[in-house]
Amino acid sequence: MSNDRARFLIEDFEKTVVEFIRRHGVTHDEYRVATDFVIREVQAGEASLAFDVLFEAEATDNANQGREGSIEAIEGPFYLPGAPMLEGPRFVMPQRPDEPGIPLIFHGRITTADGEPLAGVELDMWHADADGKYSQIHPGIPDWNLRGRFTSEADGTFEVTTIAPPPYEIPKDGPTGQLLSVLGRHCFRPAHLHVKLRHPYFGERTSQLYFEEGEYLDSDVASAVRDGLVIKPVLVEAPDQIKAHGLTESFIDARYDFVLSTARTASGA
Ligand code: MBD
Ligand code: FE
Questions:
Q1: If I label 44, which of 51, 118, 216, 266 is the partner at 20 to 30 A Cα–Cα?
Q2: Ligand 1 centre and the CA of 197: distance in Å?
């Protein structure tokens, strides 16, 4: 962000808040409740949770405006850089030996808008465990559990084995949970996988995939579900398929094909 842009945004933000304070006759006590909220949220380890829930989808939609290729999604508050690089040939997300949850195979293909396969794209994935908890955010989970990086193959395909995440519930006892309770909203996000893609030419893209017919798709507390991000989970029970994927029980197959492009669409500026 340039200095000019920062100055423009900060000044307009200031003006907007000043008008808001006047219009509603905000008292000093009310003002202090608001600033204390920001401090409490950070102190509670919730980072940008409340802001991401309320506003991040809006900013992400702006970023998607007029750009060709797969749309981007909100990052959310729980991404951590530096996740382990997974060892092939079969990529398996870091997990406990007794990791609860139904196995999930997430796979697909990464291409340019012209359909050229993109090899060596780094996928950096993170998601909640079967209790709806993220490692290094919620206590009692090994550091890099269900966080890992892997790469696409020469033909642009990728495949990783993990477990299916459940819907995510924002902790009700923290500042963000309290705020949502004042608003009379539930604390749930639909089940989702977070993944960032990195490529030397196309740069970094942040995606997030949801599952068709999952709970809370229509009432995501973060209002972040978009048509282009919902994938179809297919339960696979055939013993030969289970074996072929190195598994011992039925699994969910979920596919998403990424298209990377730097081009602007006709509707874009
Ligand atoms: C999450 O897991 C998340 O992705 C967002 C946006 C907000 C809260 C928890
Ligand atoms: Fe999340």
A1: 216
A2: 18
pLDDT band of residue 262 (cuts 50, 70, 90) is confident
Residues 123-142 pLDDT 10s: 999 999 999 999 999 999 99
Q: At what angle do helices 28-43 and 175-183 cross, to 10 degrees?
A: 130
If you count them, how many residues does the chain have?
269
Tell me, yes or no, whether 38 lies in a domain: no
Ligand 1 atom nearest to CA at 128:
2
- Segments forming the whole domain that contains residue 251: 44-260
Q: Which atom of ligand 1 is nearest to the CA of 194?
A: 4
CA of 194 relative to ligand 2 center, distance in Å: 6
Sheet holding 192-199, edge to edge: 147-151, 122-126, 192-199, 203-211, 230-231
Find tokens 């969910």 and name the residue.
Answer: 252
Are the C-beta atoms of 66 and 122 separated by less than 8 Å? no
CATH number at residue 175: 2.60.130.10
As for how many domains the chain has, the answer is 1
Q: Tell me the torsion sign for CA atoms 11, 16, 22, 28.
A: negative
Question: What are the pocket residues of ligand 1 if the criterion is a CB atom closer than 6 Å to any ligand atom?
Answer: 49, 52-53, 74, 76-78, 168, 170, 189, 222
Give burial (CB, 10 Å; 0-12/13-18/19+) of 224: buried
Q: What are phi and psi of 35, to 5 degrees?
A: -70, -35
pTM: predicted TM-score of the whole model, two decimal places: 0.94
